[in-house]
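User: Predict the complex with flavin-adenine dinucleotide.
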Amino acid sequence: MNPESKPGPPCTGAGPSASRARAIQGLTAHSLDVLIIGGGIVGAGIARDAAMRGLKVGLVEQHDFAFGTSSRSSRLLHGGMRYLAQGRLGLVRQASVEKKIVHKIAPHLAEPLPFLFPVYRGNPHWVLWQLKMGVKIYDLLCGGRNFGASTWLSKKSALQKIPGLAESDLKGAVRYYDGFTNDARLVLDTLRSAAKYGATLLNYCRFRNAINQNGWAADVEDLVSGGAGGIRAHAVVNATGPWAGGLPHSRVKLRITKGVHVVVERSRLSAEDAVVMTEGARILFVIPWGERTILGTTDTDYQGSLDRVEAEPEAINYILKVANRFFPNARLVPSDVLSSWAGLRPLLADPDGKPSDISRSHQIRSFEPGWWDVAGGKLTTYRLMAEETVDLIVRWLQKQPDAKDPTALRAQSRTAEEPLLPTSETAGVSGLLPPAFERRIVEHFCRNEWAVHLDDVFVRRTGWHHYLKKRKEVAQQVVDWMGELLGWSSEQKAAELKRYANIP
Ligand SMILES: Cc1cc2nc3c(=O)[nH]c(=O)nc-3n(C[C@H](O)[C@H](O)[C@H](O)COP(=O)(O)OP(=O)(O)OC[C@H]3O[C@@H](n4cnc5c(N)ncnc54)[C@H](O)[C@@H]3O)c2cc1C
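Assistant: Here is the predicted structure with flavin-adenine dinucleotide placed in the model:
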């Protein structure tokens, strides 16, 4: 995991505004087989699968791709220890199989990560002997071998493995494997793959409404030019994550909960393995990320704006307090926090359960012909959600008299086998750590990855925003490079810096 890594690919794309104009033309000129609303991991996964099966695919995203929850997760590919403890074996098995598939198809974005789970006297929710059994079951649920075999550790070995871990009342630990990913990069590379199979993708384009008249006619608004347009499609998929309940035609009922993460320097809190920290039944993670450490997350009901989600000081203090309890010598204070992010979980509604108890399962439903609502799920299970959705759409399309020639469509998904992208297209630009800070890297994102604004590059395509210390100086340099590439005036550059500074 070295950020000062290899060269990026050559710039192959046309100019950014030309490719945007081509995308608008591709979306509006002819009828699509399927229009996907939402450019998070679920929409991206559906676009890739559908395009690989021969469908004519369009996708619109109202902000940047991966703007929503899919750039604000814990970045884990996991079955979920907590769901195992809740007895949700089906869900754990599903996600455990999927975490290995993501590792197979996108090895640059999926690294096996060992987790040390220390157990302390006095917490009735996490009992050592039960966890010892649990991690063995966890290994078995991977549909073959897990990334590594789980083990049990005595108190002494746990303290050797994770120096600085609180000693008092420590009984021992278990160690098991999950995967670490880069959520926003997973979305972008999935979309790059979809585009290679012919999908037409447009960010900063909002779906407003649609009517069903011999197929769907959707109204969309191009938020870059301010123009509006119409897109015709046989089928429409609502893949808008936390926004899914508010879309016209949607029947989705969500319970939205918020989770906050913070990033500190590794020198302030270092752990070679990820560490599970418990707060009663809840669990939080310490996740190593290059020279940084990610801490999180919280899980609280949320009713605020979906477009601007803030990591409030109380949540940050709570995370630091838990981390300080588990690592008493760290003495973390708010000024140690380099960056933070807050995301919204689009959970299927269960008004009675505690936020952390609500199921992470997914739902794909169609109440109007040709309209599918896809909701719930996890980053880890995005590929399966996409496969199931496209299976339904293909079956439906095959029955429509005026839709695509059924023989031109593949009934079977290939997304579990086909690599996302060849290594030559990801080296230097896409990985678990931010890429090197270079002009040609920024040029790649502008030409080949649909970057429109400074924060598209700085936050989602590179992760510099969360990783770097001297962000202001670096942002100034990036805005100059982007200005040259995209033809920005000095006023536009100032507006981009202001927009970036306003990110919560
Ligand atoms: C704190 C936190 C931690 C998590 N950690 C993990 C983890 O470690 N592992 C894991 O597997 N899962 C994790 N998850 C869950 C996972 O991140 C989500 O399930 C997943 O990212 C949801 O993806 P999505 O595509 O459904 O939604 P989103 O990523 O939110 O995408 C929906 C998109 O739709 C767009 N949209 C909305 N309305 C419109 C419109 N009218 N027109 C056009 N576009 C529109 C939005 O702008 C948005 O970009 C976590 C979630 C949270 C909040």
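The longest helix spans residues 382-399.
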